[in-house]
Amino acid sequence: MTPAIEATDLRRTYVEGSGRGTGRGSGGFEAVRGISFAVPRGEIFALLGTNGAGKTSTVELLEGLAVPSAGTARVLGHDPYRERSAVRPRIGIMLQEGGFPSDLTVAETIRMWAGCTSGARPVGEALAATGLAGRERVRIKQLSGGERRRLDLALALLGRPEVLFLDEPTTGLDAEGRRDTWNLVRQLRDGGTTVLLTTHYLEEVEALADRLAIMHRGEIVLSGTPAEVTAARPARIRFTLPEGVLAAQLPLRLRAAETDGHVEIRTRDLQEDLAVLLAWAGEGGIRLDGLDARSASLEEAFLDIASRDGSSGGGLPGDVLTGDARSGDAPAGGVPAGKVQTHDTTARTDRQEADAR
Ligand SMILES: Nc1ncnc2c1ncn2[C@@H]1O[C@H](COP(=O)(O)OP(=O)(O)OP(=O)(O)O)[C@@H](O)[C@H]1O
Known about the structure:
Blueprint: E1 5-14, E2 29-39, E3 44-49, H1 55-63, E4 70-75, H2 84-87, E5 91-94, H3 106-115, H4 123-129, H5 145-157, E6 163-167, H6 175-190, E7 194-198, H7 202-208, E8 211-216, E9 219-224, H8 226-231, E10 235-240, E11 256-259, E12 262-267, H9 270-284, E13 289-294, H10 298-306, H11 349-354
Parallel strand pairs: 3-7, 3-8, 5-6, 6-7
Antiparallel strand pairs: 1-2, 1-4, 8-9, 10-12, 10-13, 11-12
Bound molecules: adenosine-5'-triphosphate (ATP).
Residues 14, 18, 20-22, 29, 31, 49, 51-57, 350-351, 354 line the site of adenosine-5'-triphosphate.
């Protein structure tokens, strides 16, 4: 089955004089450098990356808001830029900033968008789903930052989209609002909606994403399920040795780094190494203060990438990469039903104008 979203060797170059970006050569600045991935229907796929990695530049190509300088973008089997009329009614877009008229009320704003959307959900349903029930009469300018994000989401959902693009959907939300949004996104996925999510919250990715890709300097440098990405990283055991006991006295298989008695062991077999350590400590009557053993987290994988400044994205340590980071292929899932919604594309006009072609 055709994937819901497919990027093949996708590239995006910004031309000179567009006012953003660094390191441009005479041919402009290449913000997206030949990335490929596919998102099967009914999956939540998270695109992560350091600041300026190229996430938004990529997502805009998939949303049909800009044309690639090379490679292909496909959404529901169509070119989202050239076949916009076929794609747009079937997708929902939540931008980083909605840019609504500030004097309209919440209800007026939703009704306005519903008027442009075929098969729109009832206003009350969109409000209830996003926790805005009771705020219908409030003007946009009086909403809190978190409430505006909820309204952005309500508008993106209005047309029952088959594919939903969420650009940092929980920025500005409190902990409860974030959980509510996660639950809603899961419900949508369970109903067959495909979700492409960009976020800076790694716990959001761990909670939501079926698969993820991490971008750095325009390339995908790591991809897989959250479990695959973290399983490829070593676990850590930390503790403090009592005075007079040296890390060099640890069993040979526990190679450790020691600073002032603080010991860190990195291991690919946490259970076995922990058992050996505890047996050694038990036999010697040695107390391991502050003992802390934990599996690798997504955060560690991410920080590893972020710290690789000056890299072109390739050449990460072998233990970081999960398979072929650039293939991103995956089986297709079930076909959802749905309709359109997109709102405020004006926020991106400067980028579109800056595109190489
Ligand atoms: N209109 C533009 N003209 C020139 N360069 C641009 C333009 N828009 C973005 N860039 C550059 O392209 C690179 C990728 O930017 P992009 O906004 O896609 O990154 P991002 O991963 O979404 O970043 P963030 O997490 O900070 O939002 C950055 O170096 C940025 O400065």
